[in-house]
Amino acid sequence: MAAALLLVSSILFSCLAASCHGVTLSSLQKTLIVFVTASPSPGQVLKAGEDSITLTWSFNNSFPARTDSAYKTVQVKLCFAPISQQDRAWRKTEDNLVKDKTCQYKIVAKPYSPSNNTFSWTVQRDVPTGTYFVRAYAYNSADEEVAYGQTTDAHKTNNLFQVKAISGRHVSLDIASICFSSFSIVSLFGFFFLEKRRAKHSQEN
Amino acid sequence: MTDIEGSPGSSMHGVTGREPVLAFSVASPIVPTDTTAKFDLPVDSEHKAKKFKLFSFANPHMRTFHLSWISFFTCFVSTFAAAPLVPIIRDNLNLTKGDIGNAGVASVSGSIFSRLAMGAVCDMLGPRYGCAFVIMLTAPTVFCMSFVSDASGYIAVRFMIGFSLATFVSCQYWMSTMFNTKIIGLVNGTAAGWGNMGGGATQLLMPLLYEIIRRAGATPFTAWRIAFFIPGWLHVVMGILVLNLGQDLPDGNLGALQKKGDVAKDKFNKILWYAITNYRTWIFVLLYGYSMGVELSTDNVIAEYFYDRFDLKLHTAGVIAATFGMANLLARPFGGFASDYSARKFGMRGRLWTLWILQTLGGVFCILLGRANSLPFAVTNMIIFSIGAQAACGATFGIIPFVSRRSLGIISGLTGAGGNFGSGLTQLIFFTSSKFSTATGLTYMGFMICACTLPVTLVHFPQWGSMFLPPTKDVVKGSEEHYYAAEWNDDEKSKGMHQNSLKFAENSKSERGRRVASAPTPPNTTPNYV
């Protein structure tokens, strides 16, 4: 009875919240447990494009059994920790999930199942340098967020990991850049001195 | 008295203030045509074109026009090329808002100095080499973007690319060697406006290039670096075209430049003195900082603003940002036209009011742009803001020729520098701090525009009055001749150096508006040669 009430109220709540311009994070129940194990070892800075992390998530059984009946899909996202959001308003955390910019990188989307969920993810090459945590959102069939879970605590202070981005530079680009630059300078001065010489010759003749 | 080519202010010599802004040609016999010259366009005795044929590429006049404005356009493209790509660059280089703001300030600061040096370079080497030197020596700085790996490198490279905006000076200088003074206003205004459009075109071009390169397989953090090669190649191509197809003078190249004229050159320190001691100069320096200056600042921030605030895709934000800069095609000439039109009825007072109205309108819509919460409102406000600011730029240069006759060149240069300085200042104050959002920054910038436009009410010409005050009743002090001749001391007057100023004064009587007919003849202004 209590479970049914909780279920109904959680669905009602999420519907209400959705109708008020988007679901808010504070309205969601933290019913999922998400674990991330970084490989090769925790505490090491992960290199984008090379290192990978392994994620597991499951339903937190301390919640009533039927709470997750509305969950249809799960999306796992890479989110910025507060230190990487400082002086960067484009990564700002907002309670309204439509406006929230904390989690900008999608790791994986999978159909919901209460346990036995793992995924190994190589950090993408467009992930910037920063400090991160992982959050999983559960969606209902209307594609609205209904629950979430994250690897860190509510204040986002523990269990954070760091990523070092690729530089984006390539030796071939550097070489091309030097070649074109030299061409520009050489052709300018070449033209200049050639014209000076021609002028001098025509004056002497 | 023939003008020395390239002496300070010489590009505006002969501008009488009576030229209609949209004059496409000068009829003989106002300026006699040299019929012995074999050029595509009718030319005057110095072989400068009397006609402005927009869609021709004929050597040398129109070809120079096109080479010149396209070079300036290219430099605007590369100076603001980073702006629409900032959402990608900020992730690659781990930039904070402060870094992005500082880079924006750096991008407009470099040209303050390079423009000052460019005048001297054009004097020494001619405008063709002046243009080619700047554009080809800044090409490596554009290519340097591929090396940048942190905030300081980014700021340094944007600073160096900013030097390329000195092509503005070579562009205007070069036009003045090719076009008769009676149409030079239109020619220079068109070239400046079309060059400024580069700041808009780049917002379209760079995201498009980035998209194409990314789809071809590059990762985002490499794709933007490759995209920078295109503006770099444009620099090199334009430099080569300028060197090969361009010429300094209608009759040939630099050699003849220094041989012309046998009258003593005007002294630079005198010209500088009359420029800086005229309070109107500084008012227009401030005002231009809040018309051209805010235009440059907005070029730097607007794409990122739309991307973040309205969650648009990179190229959508770029398209919107581009409409801001591209409005220059018509808005700037419109400002000049509005200034001339109001002068016909209301004289100088009309010009001052036009400037104030246009610039304040721009300021008001800048405030509204920052406050707009929906995309359609934001875009509408942005467009009206752009028209106001850019038309105000055009209107400013409708008034500048009348501030001084002797020091016109330096005053134009100082005003231009004021534009860049204003841009650096507004970016520093409003778009570098994390204490408030970009939207709030735009609103504050709008308030500052309105406030900094108020000093135009203080501009008073004794002969024409000001926005609120009538001209002085004193017959001597209230004459145009007195105002312009006051820039020459008695010694110089006895040498007849002020003759051109007197001629200009006579023609500037049109700034009285409808009162021209009733102007009394002041005593002691009868020219010496009578």
UniProtKB/TrEMBL annotation, chain A:
Q: Which organism is it from?
A: Forsythia ovata
Show the stretches that span the lipid bilayer: 175-194
What GO terms in the biological process aspect are recorded for it?
Answer: nitrate assimilation; nitrate transmembrane transport; response to nitrate
Q: The organism sits in which domain of life? A: Eukaryota
Q: What is this protein called?
A: High-affinity nitrate transporter
Q: What does this protein do?
A: Involved in nitrate transport.
Signal peptide start-end:
1-17
Work out whether the entry's keyword set contains Transferase: no
Keywords, ordered alphabetically: Cell membrane, Membrane, Nitrate assimilation, Signal, Transmembrane, Transmembrane helix
User: Can you supply one Gene Ontology CC term for this chain's record?
Assistant: plasma membrane
Which family is annotated? Belongs to the NAR2 family.
Automatic annotation (TrEMBL), chain B:
- Swiss-Prot/TrEMBL keywords: Membrane, Nitrate assimilation, Transmembrane, Transmembrane helix
The residue ranges flagged as biased composition, category Pro residues, are 520-530
Q: Where is the Major facilitator superfamily (MFS) profile domain?
A: 64-458
Region feature (Disordered): 493-530
According to its UniProt entry, one GO biological process term is:
nitrate assimilation
Q: Which SUPFAM superfamilies match?
A: MFS general substrate transporter
Question: Where in the cell does this protein reside?
Answer: Membrane
Transmembrane feature ranges:
67-88, 129-148, 154-174, 186-206, 226-250, 271-292, 312-331, 352-370, 382-403, 410-430, 442-461
Tell me how this protein sits in the membrane.
Multi-pass membrane protein
Q: Which InterPro entries match?
A: MFS (IPR011701), MFS_dom (IPR020846), MFS_trans_sf (IPR036259), NO3_transporter (IPR044772)
Q: Which GO terms describe its cellular component?
A: membrane
Q: Which family does it belong to?
A: Belongs to the major facilitator superfamily. Phosphate:H(+) symporter (TC 2.A.1.9) family.
Q: What is this protein called?
A: High-affinity nitrate transporter 2.1
Question: What is the scientific name of the source organism?
Answer: Forsythia ovata
Task: Show the taxonomic lineage.
Answer: Eukaryota, Viridiplantae, Streptophyta, Embryophyta, Tracheophyta
